[in-house]
């Protein structure tokens, strides 16, 4: 989850051709002047560290630093990087019926989570489409901690609040509190992320496994929620930090002796998540794709299927039986990379689908992409062609993740 | 053969240097800086006859694709195959190792319409408001 739009720096060279884009994707353009853009608590910090700032979902965000995107990508896979993800929406769901409330909007088994355990889940609509992907953690403090995408902020908050009102009207006890203004969010990602963060906390991080969280004092800043998760396929953490102290924590992480930590921007964040086979909301999933088509069926919990009581359950459960007509797949190729919007052809040249994300993979030295194809072509190894600028580029369906995940499940 | 050490520039942010009747062509420092890290360079065929202004390939960065245009008329006589393996040469060395194509000029007078270094810098400055 997490990135909601693909970055696009302001470019006005004559006769510039932009990468094909889907209508649903909100590319960052220079529509807004710098002054109109929202700023995270790290805005000045990014500028001081050479961040190249772009408009991303209405936020001024670093797309890269001086290192360049590939170098920063590879650094994350080998060491550790800090990503500012404070533009994402952090909320709390309070109340005795908070779990029941969030389950009424999503496909996840939140009731079945352990204390301080979280899960990736989906808001679905009545048509079985995906409204957003989000992470819900069941905290030991009695509320649910929810992180949703920046690009869906308005829609998600309105959805949660209006649904909550109805829920309350039915006599239930739940309330939504958006805490984004009080807390920044840093993602620390990479194989040495744990060593870097351990330098700033007393608790033993080896006891916090993938998707679990704890409230800790981090580099002297109390009240930080540390969740072992991320959007790169690497081990790592997302740390929710009181807004005034985010820069202090980022600075401390950059200075640790135990690991070589660097800042990374949205550019490598996008190529890392794509190598990890993770969906970008607005590109790879949207309100017209179902969890079945998106091969995110694992998020639709067993108990929830049995109860059949999430939005769009009828359609989604029927589609599980009937098999969907199209499926999200991974695709690899050489030569010119296929971008979102590229037509996917079968070997005989028939159009069978479309690419939803694509880039050259810095780790694999070939192009990786994901897209939707007719289900008969979804098997790994199936040869395909990609229509890039009028030429047909040979490609094949690949298993995802493209780069093996490196999550921490305990010793 | 006279060697022209003078680099000429186009409004499309391409450059050309001419040795005899052969022109070496690439994109400017400014262009590669704006485009960012190159990931792919699509080259024309050697032997292709091009007229000034013809699309003859493209450079693709992490975030953008930009067409290349023949700055002069003539035959494409060589392409920089090193860019197929290492497209970032366009970034690291836009005026040397990152050259893109060589053309046999059929109408050298076309060079007269191009900008010299000073004029190009002035052009960049004048257009910086919308760059």
UniProtKB/TrEMBL annotation, chain A:
Gene3D superfamilies, per the entry: Aminomethyltransferase beta-barrel domains (3.30.70.1400), Aminomethyltransferase fragment (4.10.1250.10), Probable tRNA modification gtpase trme, domain 1 (3.30.1360.120)
Q: Which reaction does this enzyme catalyse, per its entry?
A: N(6)-[(R)-S(8)-aminomethyldihydrolipoyl]-L-lysyl-[protein] + (6S)-5,6,7,8-tetrahydrofolate = N(6)-[(R)-dihydrolipoyl]-L-lysyl-[protein] + (6R)-5,10-methylene-5,6,7,8-tetrahydrofolate + NH4(+)
InterPro entries named in the record: GcvT, GcvT/YgfZ/DmdA, GcvT/YgfZ_C, GcvT_C, GCVT_N, TrmE/GcvT-like
Listed EC numbers: 2.1.2.10
Q: Which Pfam families match?
A: GCV_T, GCV_T_C
The entry's cellular-component GO terms read: glycine cleavage complex; mitochondrion
The protein's enzyme class: transferase
Q: How does it assemble?
A: The glycine cleavage system is composed of four proteins: P, T, L and H.
The name this protein carries in UniProt is Aminomethyltransferase
Protein encoded by which gene = LOC109472825
TrEMBL record, chain B:
From the Swiss-Prot or TrEMBL record, give the protein name.
Glycine cleavage system H protein
Q: One cellular component GO annotation, for this chain's record?
A: glycine cleavage complex
Q: Which residues form a coiled coil?
A: none
Subcellular localization is given as: Mitochondrion
Residues the record lists as N6-lipoyllysine modifications: 63
Phylogenetic placement of the source organism: Eukaryota, Metazoa, Chordata, Cephalochordata, Leptocardii
User: What keywords sit in the KW lines?
Assistant: Lipoyl, Mitochondrion, Transit peptide
What is said about its interaction partners and assembly? The glycine cleavage system is composed of four proteins: P, T, L and H.
Q: Sum up the protein's function in the record's words.
A: The H protein shuttles the methylamine group of glycine from the P protein to the T protein. The glycine cleavage system catalyzes the degradation of glycine. The H protein (GCSH) shuttles the methylamine group of glycine from the P protein (GLDC) to the T protein (GCST). Has a pivotal role in the lipoylation of enzymes involved in cellular energetics such as the mitochondrial dihydrolipoyllysine-residue acetyltransferase component of pyruvate dehydrogenase complex (DLAT), and the mitochondrial dihydrolipoyllysine-residue succinyltransferase component of 2-oxoglutarate dehydrogenase complex (DLST).
> How are cofactors bound according to the entry's free-text note?
Binds 1 lipoyl cofactor covalently.
> What does the similarity note say?
Belongs to the GcvH family.
Per the UniProt entry, the signal peptide is: none
Q: Which cofactors?
A: (R)-lipoate
Q: What is its main location?
A: mitochondrion
| Transmembrane feature ranges | none
GO BP, one annotated term: glycine decarboxylation via glycine cleavage system
Identify the residues that the record assigns to the Lipoyl-binding domain, covering every copy.
22-104
